[in-house]
Fold this protein.
Amino acid sequence: MKEYLAKLLKALSEKNQAMQTALSESAAEGATPDEATEAEIQALEKDISALEVNIERTKKQIKAVEEAEKKGFQEPTPTPGQEPEPKIEIVKTLDKGIGFAQYARAKLASALAAKNGNFIAPVDMAKQMGFGDEVQDLVQKATVGTTTDAAFAAALVQENRLVGEFVDLLKAATVFDKLTGMRSVPFNSTIPAKTKRGKASWVGQGAKKPLTNPEFGDVKIKEHKLAAITVYTQELMRRSDPAVDILVRDDLIEASQILIDETFLGVQVETDVIPAGVLSGVTAITASGATAAAYDADLQQLEDNFLEANLSLDGSYYLMSETRAARMGRIRDALGNYYFPGMQGVNKELNGRPVITSQTVGDKIALIKTSELLLAQDGGVDVSYSDQATLEDADGTIINLWQENKFAVRVEKFITWAKRRPIAAAWIDYSTP
């Protein structure tokens, strides 16, 4: 435990040093941090907070053990006929998602050892790296169970919990999963979608009754797979350092989160590889400016797109970047009152509708009605890894894993969505200054 504490303290020192460096750059310029620096600072604050919590836990455990040794505690012998006192077992708990990251690292480290001619089973590697029983059970989940074994499904329970924690964290990070009200449907299905609302009529005595049927079309739900890849050095993967677990977890979540949100809020058409963005086929409203009057006029036009299509705005959400939301929240009128009074605080609101913020939204404000969206997804994720592949990033840079002594982790998830009708979303484009 003392060795573990030393590693935690070292990791905390490194994070604090990085924080000081980031802050000193802004201080030298005499300005507040820019967006990139602010994002880096927030990530460091999150890591520092997690490390400080684990340091305090570890110190308490060390103190408890030392005090017990000083007292020379011995378990009392129960008198005949008396039940023994129940034993208290201290179980070390991990922060959410860390178990999943350790599971991935154990498999990676085992593969690396095998490449060097030293075969170590993944479960044994998990033991060597000091990972807990729950992670070891997940690594060794492919055991054969019998109906006579009361714990034969325990590994499956561990998988569901640790993988579920990772999925929960991913959902909490995405704009996509903060939207509620989407209609769940199965993969590879055809869903009838209403393209025109039906309308009843008053009928005179003896007159013909008019048709009131709405018009329908078909929406095909395909099966799409999301894959996010992060690259690490082999030396980093071998370290039994808790800070590495946090790094792997956060990297896998961030890579998946960015890809889901950018695809969901994109303008691309559907292919066999990628689902259509909710803004596909939607003509953007060109922003008229960033003053209160300009925002007001553009938002009115945005909402009119729905109203003119005879579509209610109930259950709709505004989406925008955190930067834009902050700027709108600071606008005041001549009397000093906030022009958009719901845009301050954590739970923001604009024109009576909830606002979801994320930098992934970029230079746009979108209005989305979730009941007009169809969603298909499975509940888990698959993890794969390689040190042989040649990768190309978004900028066209080629990375040869074997040549650079690096390892890539790929997280895959089956997920897709589709619009019941084109007016499920509308947006204002602020990309032109």
In short: DSSP finds eleven helices and 15 strands in the chain.
